[in-house]
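Propose amino acids for all 429 sites.
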């Protein structure tokens, strides 16, 4: 065979191979599940995925003032029910102006939220008859007073008490319902004032009764969160630590499974610098992120919103009471450049088997006495609440106990009151 013929055959073979490789590249599709930014990824960890701002923003107390006495609901589910009904009231004649502290009416209703909220959120929580122009300041308390024409005056008071927004509710049925509570408080429990300040704290005067329960746990596969938290799950490596813990990483992001598989901690080292987010943007971004995961595995309420560091915290609630456990009862997020930077949350869900017993807690008067006898400073106490301590009785048992207890928010941290020691349990919650 001539040399030219051999060259022609080799060239034809090379061209054929080149065409086959080109066709293969065109037709090849990588088996990557998510190639886009992580905010577009979706996962399903077994919870709700359609939660809105009005669902997670709930007052921690509703207090009925009757002259110099105060009352509250015995069952916190009634408090939440009243608030949900208030969200459907149509409010008219919205106005803003100067204020000189809270109203001084003998009969009034006071709602307190766990953290200051931007006024811009108002039309996401309540109903107005027309579009309203919302101011830039924040509020934490709402006051409702009674007008002679059977209308209700709703007042949103600024943090320092020098600004207020007002609106009217022209609904005699709602007027009569609230008026019955403040003038005939037989269905309510008497409360007492812990301390007089710009943010007063009211607690039940007598001994509250609560149900102690056991809750069964159902584990959530952390792999579902790998799919949503990492931009390319296919390259994520799963490692096991010497202590038996599990760690996922793609060399940029990391997720540690904590608490014997009951919670996770995620961080993203790509986003170390950030711009401060507007409160509404921070809240929307956070809720949408958890919605994409169907991540509301229990009932969670907003507890803290810190735009200065783009930090947000939600706390688990059960039967209307807050639940305290540093790993299993809170969802915390921190954002950098609108992307998730840090994330802590439980990866278990709970259900309640039949069976419960009633527990009587110390009275509010006992709480005040104990605090007076302790080394705590009253001006460093931000809040006092009744809640559930979620803990395991035995690590080998497949359930946890919801134990009723008094909690104090002292120096910014929730701590359980231990009456038998006349001290504060120093463990965080």
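Proposal:
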């Amino acid at each position: 065979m001539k040399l030219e013929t051999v060259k022609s055959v080799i060239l034809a073979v090379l061209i054929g191979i080149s065409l086959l490789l080109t066709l293969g590249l065109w037709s090849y599709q990588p088996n990557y599940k998510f190639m886009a930014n992580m905010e577009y990824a979706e996962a399903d960890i077994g919870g709700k995925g359609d939660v809105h701002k009005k669902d997670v923003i709930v007052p921690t107390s509703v207090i009925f003032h009757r002259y110099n006495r105060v009352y509250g609901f015995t069952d916190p589910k009634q408090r939440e029910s009243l608030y949900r009904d208030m969200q459907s009231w149509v409010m008219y004649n919205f106005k803003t102006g100067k204020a000189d502290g809270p109203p001084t009416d003998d009969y009034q209703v006071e709602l307190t939220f766990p953290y200051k909220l931007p006024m811009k959120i108002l039309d996401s929580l309540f109903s107005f008859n027309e579009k309203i122009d919302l101011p830039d300041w924040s509020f934490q308390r709402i006051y409702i007073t009674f007008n002679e024409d059977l209308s209700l005056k709703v007042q949103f008071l600024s943090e320092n008490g020098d600004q207020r927004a007002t609106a009217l509710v022209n609904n005699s049925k709602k007027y009569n319902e609230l008026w019955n509570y403040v003038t005939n408080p037989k269905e309510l429990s008497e409360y007492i004032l812990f301390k007089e300040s710009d943010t007063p704290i009211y607690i039940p005067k007598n001994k509250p009764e609560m149900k102690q329960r056991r809750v069964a746990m159902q584990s959530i596969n952390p792999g579902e969160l790998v799919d949503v938290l990492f931009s390319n799950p296919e390259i994520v490596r799963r490692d096991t630590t010497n202590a038996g813990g599990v760690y996922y990483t793609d060399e940029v992001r990391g997720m540690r499974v904590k608490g014997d598989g009951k919670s996770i901690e995620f961080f993203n080292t790509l986003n170390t610098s950030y711009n401060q987010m507007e409160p509404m943007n921070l809240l929307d971004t956070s809720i949408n992120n958890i919605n994409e995961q169907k991540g509301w595995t229990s009932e969670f309420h907003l507890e803290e919103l810190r735009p200065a560091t783009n930090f947000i915290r939600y706390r688990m609630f059960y039967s209307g009471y807050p639940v305290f456990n540093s790993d299993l009862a809170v969802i915390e997020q921190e954002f950098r450049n609108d992307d998730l930077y840090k994330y802590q949350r439980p990866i278990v869900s709970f259900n309640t088997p039949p069976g419960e017993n009633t527990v009587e807690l110390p009275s509010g008067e006992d709480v005040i006495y104990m605090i007076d006898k302790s080394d705590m400073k009253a001006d460093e106490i931000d809040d006092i609440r009744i809640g559930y301590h979620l803990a395991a009785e035995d690590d080998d048992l497949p359930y946890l106990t919801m134990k009723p207890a008094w909690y104090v928010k002292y120096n910014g941290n929730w701590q359980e009151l231990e009456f038998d020691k006349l001290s504060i349990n120093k463990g965080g919650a």
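The longest strand covers residues 107-118. Helices lie at 3-27, 53-56, 76-86, 122-125, 172-183, 223-229, 279-292, 364-373.
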